[in-house]
Amino acid sequence: MIQRIQTVYLLLIVILSGFILFSPIADLISLITKLTYLVDFKGISLVKPTGNTLESNIWGVTTISAVVPIIALITIFSYKNRVKQIRLSVINMIFMVGYYVVLFSYLWPACSRLQADCHLRITAVLPIINLILTFLAIGAIGKDENLVKSLDRLR
Fold first, then answer.
1. Which helix (H) or strand (E) holds 136?
2. What is the value of pTM for the model shown?
């Protein structure tokens, strides 16, 4: 299980997804009042004066950020069923693309409502890295499946 390269890819996905969940996603800087707002898993909060959460309806981004590492862990531990691993990885890729859809559908109205510029942090790029790692894991799982099929033919 651990000696397979897809396990390393999937573990990196778990680590990066945990980092995504607990790190700020974006900064919103108001054009009029010059206040800075922080977007993280709790919602939008004002950075300087109070730090209180202004809006907490970012549950879609938080949920997807929490589901992705769980699916990756389930994928790691279903190593005996490679077809299931591939299916779970594809589902995980769909969730990662859905992360961006939900994130931008949340940030767009928030920026216009607060009249602010949105500055994404490096955390917003990590799901793309997760997508690449998932694609590499699917390729490695497919190679293992082909190897097992070819060995079954020899018997």
1. helix 126-154
2. 0.86
